[in-house]
Design goal:
CATH architecture of the largest domain in chain B: 3-Layer(aba) Sandwich
Order of helices and strands of chain B: HEEEEHEEEEHHEEEHHEHEHEHEHEEHE
CATH class of the largest domain in chain A: Alpha Beta
CATH topology of the largest domain in chain A: Beta Polymerase, domain 2
CATH superfamily of the largest domain in chain B: NAD(P)-binding Rossmann-like Domain
Distance between the termini of chain B: 41 Å
CATH topology of the largest domain in chain B: Rossmann fold
Largest sheet of chain A: 7 strands, mixed
Oligomer: heterodimer
Order of helices and strands of chain A: HHHEHEHEEEEEHHHHHH
Radius of gyration of chain B: 30 Å
CATH architecture of the largest domain in chain A: 2-Layer Sandwich
Number of domains of chain B: 3
Shape of chain A: elongated
Number of strands of chain B: 18
Chain lengths: 330, 501
């Protein structure tokens, strides 16, 4: 089996958010938080923002293009519509960042943060609904969500997988970026498909990263196949009995095909012998592609050229003794 | 694609030093090779269930760390030529096989043959073996005497010399500092008011050590006088503590010194490296025949370059009695090839100088006598041949060698003659007459000289261009044959003739 342990470790490092990402995201969150908190109306509604989304759940990858800000309104008043909230947030942010940088969406307000290397912040207002929260829908209504529990579930899953679930999620998000680009479904759908596959025991929690990545791709491909072909809906683990909904533009047929092919490539790579590690790495490079900083997120193992051919000799066991043999004195 | 096994570069060829670019390329290739070996090892461990939890390796350097429920494996600088470090994830009892920092002692230096840790299966088997033996309390444990490796104390630069401590057990001793060496001066307390450059030492014995002490306090507690030692240390009345310990029939000594770690601070224990100077310690390295040579006598005639190194070799091997004879004077220029290297002995007879040097050598256990008389008397030659001593002729002087040869033949006795010829390209040792009626070795075919003759003031014959290494090489061959004869295990019936190109 081609474990490619060091290459996987490097790939995990290569998809980690950059230092700039780690700096820009919290700074942007703090800046917008201050702007919103200074508004008397929002203050009166009890605004209390937290970071959610992939960045909030610590599963974002390099580069971080956007972060999601969950604006909890702890004292949400009766008679105020979702659109009223969005309009108020939009007005406050336009006053601070100018209307060219602020966009009013159906369910949120998006801000292009100045001096943050093109980082967007998606501000989603939320109101309390019992023990969970509600966010606006496209048609101006409210829908239940529970992002805080989602983070807790991710942590539990990560612990169950001996801290390898989060790295695997990140590698799958990178694979999605490489395979689907800007097309939907996005990284959250991949993450939830993996979560489902793990719950269905399609993924071995005690596997090596090479095997885990392979079975994770297979699991996600299977979930996407069922979504595309059988009308399967991913259960919402944060709200038992609920099902997850994704962007209506999401093309799960394409996602199914791409992830099925990628899973087959990963399986072929994993099945290769160690002395074919270079060829195995080539297949994995095809899955994980590049990002802004690395031409190949998944590096060739040492001792192989860019085409996966061996460049160093393979001294086998038994040829490692000194010329004179053993039991020498000097 | 060139075959990496057969591709040649500038580096290391007869063309001389590699160009900078070629050297960089070669170095990069080498780093890639080392990294590939490491990655193969890591993959092998991952296949065996270990998890790679850290790996920010960069070329030949690595911090890769792997873990399974039982152990944590860390790659260290020097891998793959240095074994990885292994630590148990859960507590394991202290033993001689666990380093003070908790790492398992998996490979002693003599276990490095073939780098067995590079085979992941063998490596994991070694770990399993370690735990099995640890559970069984290490049966058949070899008595390694390296207690200092477990003490985790700061190390100081001075070196403590000691000899048999049995007469000083549980007693104070007076010690003296000579440059960087601390050695035992005499028994007893150092006077409080007049130390006269003396250091205060104390000798104790902690008996058999089944498990190394955890730390300094544990060590002191294991002595018969912990309070006395602690009090003496706190009152700055103890400079050196010598702790004798035992493993089976073997005895080791641990030297602890006391000095402040900061100016004006209280004295703190430090680890000082130490070594025994007694005969037993020297004999350990004299070879397997040392005991057989204790009662043997070798009489060397001619202690110029070759004879002096033969005398030295026999001394190191443990010969009991050595006579060196030469009437020539030692000159400063002899130092290049001779055993004696100090100009201070210039002008003395070579025999006297050799005896003087050997008598000061710590390894010498021989009773060395010297003679500066020329050997010309047929009667004396016969007397020597008839004695119990093995006669060794290293004179390279025909008048002496022929005297011994004819006398030996007539008397039915045997001697050894040795020399270097052909400017150091011919080395020979002749047993005269050969053993068991064997034929003597053929005479050396003399080659045309390759170097012009050179002369030195005060010397009537040319200086031989023989190189020093040829002399020591010939001496080593001669010593090997001499010891073979003395121990009744001759290497050859006639000696040895080595012709070098």
């Amino acid at each position: 089996m081609a474990e490619l342990a060091t290459s996987f470790a490097t790939a995990q490092s290569n998809v980690e958010p950059s230092d700039d990402d780690w700096d820009n995201a919290p700074e942007a969150h703090d800046a917008i938080n201050k702007v919103l908190a200074a508004d008397e109306t929002l203050k009166g509604w009890g605004i209390n923002p937290i970071l959610i989304g992939s960045y909030g759940r610590r599963v974002s990858i390099r580069r971080v293009y956007d972060i999601d800000m969950f604006c909890r309104l702890d004292d949400y008043p009766e008679g105020v519509s979702a659109q009223d909230v969005l309009d108020q947030v939009y007005a406050v942010l336009v006053a601070e960042y100018h209307k060219d940088a602020v966009t009013l969406e159906d369910r949120s307000v998006t801000v292009l943060v100045p001096d943050a290397d093109g980082l967007y912040v998606d501000v989603v207002p939320a109101r309390k609904s019992g023990t969970v929260w509600e966010i606006p829908t496209d048609d101006g209504d409210w829908v239940v969500t529970n992002p805080v529990v989602m983070s807790e579930l991710k942590e539990a899953k990560n612990a169950n997988f001996d801290e390898m679930y989060v790295p695997c999620v990140k590698l799958l998000r990178q694979a999605r970026r490489n395979l689907l680009g800007t097309a939907k479904p996005g990284g959250f759908a991949v993450e939830m498909a993996l979560y489902t596959a793990c719950d269905e025991a399609q993924v071995n929690p005690s596997a090596s990263m090479a095997e885990l990545f392979t079975t994770a791709l297979e699991g996600v491909a299977d979930v996407f196949r069922r979504m595309a072909d059988e009308g399967f809906a991913i259960p919402d683990p944060s709200m038992p009995g609920e099902e997850m909904t994704f962007d209506p533009d999401a093309d799960f047929d394409t996602a199914r095909d791409k992830f099925t092919t990628a899973a087959a490539d990963a399986r072929e790579a994993y099945a290769m012998d160690e002395d074919q590690a270079g060829k195995a790495a080539l297949l994995l490079q095809g899955i994980l592609g590049s990002n802004d900083d690395f031409e190949n997120v998944f590096p060739m193992p040492s001792g192989y050229d860019d085409d996966g051919n061996r460049t160093t000799s393979d001294r086998s066991a038994g040829s490692r003794s000194a010329t004179a043999g053993t039991l020498r004195f000097g | 694609m060139a075959d990496p096994e057969t591709t040649t570069t500038d580096a290391g060829t007869d063309d001389g030093a590699a160009t900078s670019d070629a050297a960089d390329a070669a170095l990069a290739r080498w780093c890639e090779f080392v990294a590939a070996r490491r990655e193969a090892f890591l993959n092998g461990l991952v296949q065996r269930g270990l998890r790679l939890v850290e790996d920010r390796s960069d070329g030949p350097t690595s911090n890769a760390t792997l873990r399974n429920p039982r152990i944590t494996v860390t790659i260290v600088d020097g891998f793959p030529y240095t074994p990885p470090k292994v630590r148990a994830n859960e507590f394991v009892t202290r033993s001689w096989h666990r380093e003070s920092d908790g790492h398992l002692c998996l490979y002693a230096p003599h276990d490095h043959n073939g780098q067995p840790w590079l085979d992941p299966a063998k490596f994991m088997a070694r770990v399993d073996e370690w735990f099995s033996k640890n559970d069984a309390d290490w049966p058949d444990d070899p008595p390694a005497l390296d207690l200092e490796a477990y003490m985790n104390l700061p190390v100081e630069g001075r070196f403590v010399l000691y000899h048999d401590l049995s007469e000083h057990l549980d007693s104070y001793i007076q010690m003296r500092l000579d440059r960087n060496l601390i050695h035992i001066d005499s028994a007893g307390h150092v006077p409080k008011k007049s130390r006269k450059g003396l250091l205060s030492g104390y000798v104790t014995d902690i008996g058999d050590v089944d498990t190394p002490p955890a730390d300094w306090n544990d060590l002191v507690a294991s002595t018969s006088a912990p309070t006395k030692i602690r009090t003496a240390m706190q009152r700055d009345r103890l400079d050196v503590l010598l702790v004798q310990y035992h493993r089976g029939t073997h005895t080791g000594v641990l030297a602890i010194t006391f000095k402040p770690t900061e100016p004006g601070g209280p004295p703190r224990p430090h680890l000082a490296f130490s070594g025994a100077t007694d005969d037993a310690a020297m004999r350990l390295r004299s070879g397997a025949t040392a005991n057989s040579l204790e009662d043997k006598h070798v009489y060397i005639v001619g202690v110029g370059a070759l004879g002096s190194h033969i005398a030295d070799g026999l001394s190191r091997a443990g010969i009991g009695h050595l006579t060196v004879r030469d009437h020539d004077i030692y000159k400063p220029g002899n130092a290049t090839r001779h055993l004696v290297t100090t100009t201070a002995l210039a002008g003395t007879f070579k025999a006297t100088a050799v005896k003087a040097v050997l008598d000061t050598r710590p390894y010498n256990r021989a009773n060395v006598t010297s003679s500066i008389d020329p050997l010309t008397s047929p009667v004396e030659a016969a007397t020597l041949l008839l004695s119990d001593a093995l006669l060794v002729d290293a004179t390279a002087d025909d008048s002496v060698t022929c005297l011994f040869e004819e006398a030996a033949t007539e008397l039915g006795r045997r001697f050894v003659t040795t020399c270097v010829q052909n400017e150091g390209r011919t080395l020979r040792v002749d047993i005269v007459p050969p053993l068991d009626g064997a034929a003597p070795q053929p005479a050396t075919t003399l080659q045309p000289p390759r170097a012009p003759e050179v002369f030195e003031a005060g010397c009537g014959v040319p200086i031989s261009p023989t190189a020093p290494h040829a002399v020591t090489e010939a001496a080593a061959i001669a010593v090997r044959h001499i010891i073979g004869l003395l121990t009744d295990r001759p290497l050859d019936t006639a000696g040895e003739l080595r012709e070098l190109p």
